[in-house]
Amino acid sequence: MPIQIVQSIADARSTCRLQNRQGKSVGLVPTMGFLHEGHLSLVRQARSDNDFVVVSVFVNPTQFLPSEDFDTYPQNFEQDQRLLEDEGVDLIFFPSTKEMYCSSNSTFVEVTGQLTTNLCAISRPHFFRGVATVVAKLFNIVEPDRAYFGHKDAQQLAIIQRMVQDLNFDIEVVPMPIVRDSDGLAKSSRNSYLNPDQRRSSTVLFRALQHAKTLITQGERSSNRILAEMEKMIQATEYTRIDYINIVCTTSFEPQEYINSEVLIAIAVWITNTRLIDSIRIDPANLTS
């Protein structure tokens, strides 16, 4: 059956409800388009797990400040459509901003507490309200059984999981591993902004994370010493400017001064004018030297 493309909320909702009435499971992969192998890994898992797969393609304006790259965010819907057809997706939901947000829209979803007080929330305090709101809207429109998100956006994933728990969405959130290029750089639509020299510098994010892992494997447990080593490595690399580096608890997102259980090492670095994020989870109990 050919892929369906719908732009209206009413059409997306009626199509997905028909699947539910027929007893079919529905999987949702929310995206902002300009798809890469990271997105496609989510799509493939959704295709494996569900009878009917929906991919949303929507650049969400509520998670951008006026100074950010909403107007220039990379888009290529024809390419996205071809990729999703090849993966056997059943439905692409491709709404306009006007369709998703009426002019009088005044309701937003906001997750509060430690999850939204550090890391990306410091430099982008608006971001997670926009993410939670659009994901909640997509959940209400599609009513999926499962929704798929990557570990690359670790804080976003944790916030969505908390929203699903707190608002009693009957949806399984399926986390998926980070997909990387051969040199370690995490796949991201924003990688397309980088010129060749900047692209070479961008590998320092993964190299710094791997260096931190090596230090922990060798027995280092002081977060301050690990962060100082990472900072030194990044600052020695051309085109870089650190937004943040932190080591936090994987559940509470509280910063950790001493590593004695599983932690998330999270990083955001500007490569000239392109902000990239990456992270790794490390449990010292499971490391071998």
Summarize the structure.
With 289 residues, this protein is an alpha/beta fold. The chain folds into 2 domains: 4-176, Rossmann fold, CATH 3.40.50; 189-286, Pantoate-beta-alanine ligase, C-terminal domain (Pantoate--beta-alanine Ligase, Chain: A,domain 2). Helices cover 37% and strands 19% of the residues.
What are the salient characteristics of this protein?
289 residues; alpha/beta; Rossmann fold; Pantoate--beta-alanine Ligase, Chain: A,domain 2; six-stranded parallel sheet; three-stranded antiparallel sheet; 10 helices; 9 strands; globular
Largest sheet: 6 strands, parallel
Q: Percent of residues in beta strands?
A: 15-25%
Number of strands: 9
* Count of distinct structural domains: 2
> Strand pairing plus helix content: what structural class?
alpha/beta
Radius of gyration: 19 Å
Shape: globular
The CATH class of the largest domain is Alpha Beta
